[in-house]
Amino acid sequence: MFRKQISFGAVCLVCCLTAGLSFGDGKKAAKREAAKPSEKGVLWTDPGDISTRDVLHGPGGANRVPHGPFTFDKEDFDGASPKFSVKSADGIKWKVKMGIEARPETAASRIVWAVGYYANEDYFLPEIQVQGLPARLHRGQKEVGPNGTIRNVRLKREDDKKLGTWEWRNGPFDGTREFNGLRTLMAAINNWDLKDENNAVYEVNGQRIYMVSDLGASFGCPGRCWPSTHAKGDPDEYGESKFIRGTNTETVSFEAPSRPGVLRLSDPKEYRMRVHLEWIGQNIPRADAKWLGSLLARLSPDQLRDAFRAAGYQSQDVDEFAQVLTSRIAELNALETAPSRPRLILEPA
Q1: CA triplet 263, 280, 32: central angle to 5 degrees?
Q2: CB 209 within 8 A of CB 235
Q3: Which residues pair with 200 in a beta bridge?
Q4: Structure pTM?
Q5: Is the separation of the CB atoms in 37 and 207 below 8 Å?
Q6: Has residue 167 got a pLDDT over 70?
């Protein structure tokens, strides 16, 4: 009886937390609409012959791999992962990310970039040595070894001008094939941390570029899970998780991003925020999801493995990740599509 009362109470609490979403979203949507940029910019560009993409080195290529010695600049306190900036010997500024997100973010950046979306120039390095580190970092000190040695880090090049962030809901690309393809891609890699603050707008050669700039919560569970080490970059969790949640004649819905478990009700604000993100993977036109699948299908088995090799995974994990992603690509391409309908087509500004 007591268990039933707890269960009923949990259900009531969930209803209370989620009931106000629609009303609140209406007010926020009006504000977001007014905040749209006057110039749409670019979300995706035709990647051309995907089979020739250097997935191992990603958007920066082999010639821009960072080399030490590195000199400490300053700490970055944004996000959950410990980070700080360094300068390499050639004066280039890099953002160093330590911890569990370093590997999955590097692999995800390769897949995202390979099919035509924008990604930061990320590189995974098994070890770096940093000069001039403070006596103690505020975050990540346990990752620092003797003589400023730090293992298993992601370095992101920082020479592009960041203009701000963009919002998933009511954004400048809402309703386009490319936007729906990006939603599908996030589900395919199980990137569940799709907060607006993890999106960025950059200015590159005078062009406004939109991207998902934090991809660290990929290739693990489709949402927050316990233990937290399984939520990101875990081949077993990635392989065991469900991909397609359901379909109807027009749309497909994915499991990621999923809402957290009932235990997360202990933090109502966090729970409500995660519920609010679920729509990103829901009710995507089947034709748009299959379009994204057709792009991914042009990557060879070696290219898929290269994405995970670039992130420093062991051979067995590389193969497991690539097999799961290959299976998901096949599921997307097996989707039957409804008859053609009027649609928005994305054109560069």
Answers
A1: 110
A2: no
A3: 211
A4: 0.85
A5: no
A6: yes
